[in-house]
Amino acid sequence: MIAFGTGGWRAIIGEDFTKENVQKLALAVARRMRVEGVDGKGIVLGFDRRFLSREAARWAAEVMAAESVHTYFIAREAPTPLIMYAVKSMELAYGMAVTASHNPALYNGVKLFTRGGRDAPLEVTEPLGAAASAIDRAEVRFLRYEDALERKLVTEIAPENGYLDAIIRTLDMDAIRRRNLRIVLDPMYGVSRTSLQTILLTARCDVDVIHERHDALFGGRLPSPNVETLGALRAAVVESRADIGIATDGDADRIGVIDDTGKFIHPNEILVLLYYYLLKYKGWRGPAVRNLATTHLLDKVAASFGEECYEVPVGFKYISAAMEAHDAIIGGESSGGLAVKGHIPGKDGIQAAALLVEMMAVTGEPLSALTKRIYAEFGEAYMAEYDWPFQPEERARLARFLMEEKALPQFPEEIASVSYLDGVKVRFRDGWLIVRFSGTEPRLRVFCEMPDRIRAERMCLAAAQFLGLKI
Q1: Nearest alpha carbon to residue 107 among 16, 196, 174
Q2: Is the pTM here over 0.90, yes or no?
Q3: In Å, how far from its chain's centre is CA 239?
Q4: Looking at CB atoms within 10 Å, which of 26, 47, 73, 184 has the fewest?
Q5: What are phi and psi of 293, to 5 degrees?
Q6: Distances in Å between the alpha carbon of 56 and those of 13, 45, 51, 106, 341?
């Protein structure tokens, strides 16, 4: 089966991520483009450093060529936001990135983009997944990649310079140059090094890089920038006395940060810091958007400037849509993805990293001091996060228990309200807890935000015990 989740279609290599399924998906996309009358405009295809990514992108291009859909093929491994930028700048209706983003190395997949470089919405991905799954193998035709190149049905492109220039134009490069910042980058064996290093070196930063080589196993760890995976970056920042350590996930649409003291800065804090910076220092005005598993501290910052903060389900397509609908200046999620108005309508870890560096340069303060100032002004917020794997039959039981029977534990805090917008979200007087299924992996997630760690952990424990899970 080919089924799209919150971040595209992802599957285990050799199980559901196969050549046949990639070809079927490509054929389904080509047929949809023909029905919509946009097949003549062509499609952008790109890939990351995962095992079989390059080959899978070529398999898709070969099917597109056989269907007479022109493919603009990014010939070298590319960050996902670069592919989104290419869809937008070339004014195409569709684009595809072969990547499983931050998932473990045994996964691969495809992210689909629509006009403007947006993440494809459910009304596109659901019928596409169903159509692709229904295709018979005998229906698939393909034209060998080299022949497609020769017949000009595939054009190899290199859009990176335009993408980098678009980011650089949004930055105060002079302010960054004056600071002489020392930065350590950790691409996590992914695709951000060239793009991010180029921007920072252009701004005269002193840049060291770790984990930059090509390793399809990501050094044996999850290519997701979180507190558990960034130990080496933390050590490098402390040892070199760097101003900041910046990590990106496998396809560079998410960011993770180590501050000048060696402390991991949670993506919630990054989002709040950048929104505060845009409002207070750059003088921007406009609301923010967050998903329902992201810090409510963002709401407090918005309110202090007379702005709104809008809540949407998990999935960046919802954030992008809400940003457009409300003319928001920033949108983000607690997993490290964020978007800023005026760039691409999707998350970009490279742009977010560059904006963080500008923030440090313009304010003249270290990241640790800026974080303390946020908490001093708006109050403390601690996020406890847990997740558990489950079998298919267990998911059905949990879904019935939570969503149909609407069972809730006896929490040690008074419940203010309950929402079933995406999973179960319980609001308390000064915090919240959410239980939901991951849209990218077979895992159940429990997040809780409270003013202190003890209360947040206590709430997660109550939920876990109620569901028969172990912390």
Answers
A1: 16
A2: yes
A3: 29
A4: 73
A5: -110, 25
A6: 11, 10, 9, 15, 32
